[in-house]
Amino acid sequence: MFFHITLERNMQLHPRHFGPHLRDKLVAKLMKDVEGTCSGRHGFVVAITGVEDIGKGLIREGTGFVTFPVKYQAVVFRPFKGEILEAVVTMVNKMGFFAEAGPVQIFVSNHLIPDDMEFQSGDMPNYTTSDGSVKIQKDSEVRLKIIGTRVDATEIFCIGTIKDDFLGVINDPGVTA
Amino acid sequence: MSMEPFNRMVKLAARAFYDDVSIMGESQSKPGRIDNRGMTVIVLDALTRRQWVREEDLAKALKLHSKQLRRTLRFFEEEKLITRVHRKESAKGAKNFNAAIAATRDTQQTTKEGEEKMKMHMHSYCCLDYAQILDVVRYRMHRMKKKLKDELDSRNTIQEYICPNCGRRYSAFDALQLVSMEDEYFHCENCNGELVAESEKLAAEQLGDGDDNARKRRHEKLKDMYQKMEDQLKPLIAQLDRVKDLPAPEFGTLQAWEARARAASQANGDSNASDSKNIQGQGYGGTPMPFLGETSIEVALSGVEAKEETEPDIKPTALKVIPPWMIKQGMNLTIEQRRGIMPEPNVEHNSDDKKSSVDDKKPSADRDNEKSLQDEYLKAYYAALVKRQEEEEASRRIQQQTELSTSAAEEPVDRRVGMKSKREDDEDIEWESAAGTGNSSQSYKLADLNAEADASDDDNGGDDDDIAWEEG
To answer: Which segments constitute the RNA polymerase Rpb7-like N-terminal domain (chain A) (predicted)?
Structure first.
């Protein structure tokens, strides 16, 4: 799920950046550092929408670096258990398939794939129904439900299922827009 | 005792969960294996009737091989149903334990002092741990219900993978890291073996059916299983509810329990205290005494109750008064035993007749005042009684003398028969020796008692001829 929240961070700046564009340099550095990262608490930081406040800089002892406490607003993405997402299949395996929903990776094991879908290996391994009507392969879009998340300090993994109602393939990759 | 509902719970749990567990040894060959399912139930039932018990004793009592029993007990220990203690003891220490058990059960036991084996053997003791059993059983039920409910409700189970080589378990979360191998399977991190999915399905699936049908059938099966489980476990659940509010019986560690039991036995005044010598054996002589004191039979296990004691120890100083109905003709008894008072020189009779004695069945060492009162009462009583009996005696003596004169002729006849008379003599001697052990304590006191004993012995010999049924 996406959230728009205020975060805080202490940014260190090298003295060579001191000058008339100090603030811009600071914001640029912030974006470079934070966007795309993941924290266990907030989830993936998708984009920084604005900088709220930059506090007074503190010169560190020994080095010339200056530390600024920066408050900023960002869009974050954090998956939850029980959430239903759309994801794109990245890899199909005998044990299940991997899908990506933005920055988060989700694994659906074959135990949670409906029983009528069987694995078929080949150059394009896929799961397909007995009558061939539904096929899950690379780049298929799939709606899945998250049944478990594992949150490390800097990573989030998810396990999903497509065995419930209204889940499964949305879009056939063969159909090109 | 608050153990009864707990014991019932243990028995129910044993029959519900452990009745088809068979404890096999690894070294037994297949045809040689005996099907011993249900032994667990028997062992658990036996443990509900005991507290701390030595495993060898339990094996003997249940007539099981100690090795099998040990395997079973090891299984219980892993299931967290019992606590086990292994300690090195000499055989003497083991006897201390025996005495402690005997004290709990109120049986008499004489400890054999004298065999001093200082070899230390490893003795194992075990005891049911009720509080833990309650927790374990409840947790087990909770897990069973949870597993079924999970399967039943939402199928939100996270797959687990096992490496068949090294047995390492992985969750589906780890799979995200494990995967990136190009050959379609998950490989173990250590040994690179192929991981096998652990199927958590309780209901078997039938492939080839339409999706809905198979699902429905599985659903039904799970529902049935859940229902059956509830029904079959209903008595156990009821018992658990009853029991979970009660405090569980606590036996404490082995040492604490032993010390308690020994203290209880000593307070009890029974002669099975393991460290006191068995002096009382002499005091009992040839007569089983009526129960001394007002000791209560109930042994408190959780906390020793202070027992009402009439005497801490049975002192062998006072000879017991034998009630008249116990006295058989031919018993070598002192006047004291017959009458219950110190014999006065005035009232000296060849005591072959029964004197009635007061039922002084409670010689209380610490109630001396009462005793002196009783003695005085006895004296007065006997003084009156003696007079009456003297008259009876006088009449009887006349009878006896006439009989003796008649039987005097018989005696030499008997002696000529040889063996028979000898046997009689032997039996007289036996009586003497038996009475002798009884009287040996008296010999410390009064010399004239012994003399009297001999005198009475001769007379008894005379009586024996008259009354033949004595020597049986």
So the answer is: 8-64
Residue of B nearest to A145 (CA): B156
pLDDT class for A29, splitting at 50, 70, 90?
A: very high
Q: Is the four-CA dihedral B205, B208, B209, B215 of positive or negative sign?
A: positive
Least confident of B181-195, B299-313, B391-405: B299-313
Does the CB of B183 have a partner CB in chain A at under 8 Å? no
Nearest Cβ partner of B176 from A107, A110, A147?
A: A107
Tell if the CB–CB gap between A111 and B211 is shorter than 8 Å: no
Q: 10 Å Cβ neighbour count for B347?
A: 16
| Res. A32 pLDDT band, cuts 50 70 90 | very high
Q: Which residues of A touch B202 (CB under 8 A)?
A: none
Check the CA dihedral B446-B450-B451-B453 and report its sign. Answer: positive
What does pLDDT average to over chain B? 67
From CA A23, how far away is CA A68, in angstroms rounded? 10
Q: Is B185 on the interface with A (CB under 8 A)?
A: yes
Q: In terms of residues, how long is chain B?
A: 472
The DSSP line for B108-155 is ------S------EEEEEEEE-HHHHHHHHHHHHHHHHHHHHHHHHT-
Rounded CA gap, B425 and B417, in Å? 13
Its pTM stands at: 0.45
Best to test chain B binding among A94, A115, A117 (most B CBs inside 10 Å):
A115
Which amino acid, B17?
A: F
Nearest to B286 by CA among B233, B322, B247, B339: B322
Q: Do B158 and A148 touch (CB under 8 A)?
A: yes
Query: Which residues of chain A form CATH 2.40.50.140?
Result: 84-176
* Cβ-based contacts of B156 with chain A (< 8 Å): 147-148, 161
What crossing angle do the helices spanning B447-466 and B368-417 adopt, rounded to 10°?
A: 50
Q: What local confidence, expressed as pLDDT, does residue B19 receive?
A: 82
Nearest-Cα residue of chain A relative to residue B195: A95
ipTM computed for the complex: 0.71
Distance from CA of B176 to the nearest CA of A (A): 7
| pLDDT, position B94 | 67
Residue A129: list chain B partners with CB under 8 A.
none
Contacting B with CB below 8 Å, chain A residues are 91, 93-96, 98, 105, 107, 109-112, 114-116, 121, 125, 147-148, 150, 157, 159, 161, 163-164
CATH 3.30.1490.120 domain span(s) along chain A: 2-77
Report residue B298's pLDDT band, with 50, 70 and 90 as the boundaries.
low
CATH among 3.50.30.50, 2.40.50.140, 3.40.50.300, 3.30.565.60 for A84-176: 2.40.50.140
Q: What is the pLDDT of residues B188-220, one digit of tens each?
A: 777 777 777 776 555 445 444 455 566 677 778
Give residue for tokens 């009660």.
Answer: B246
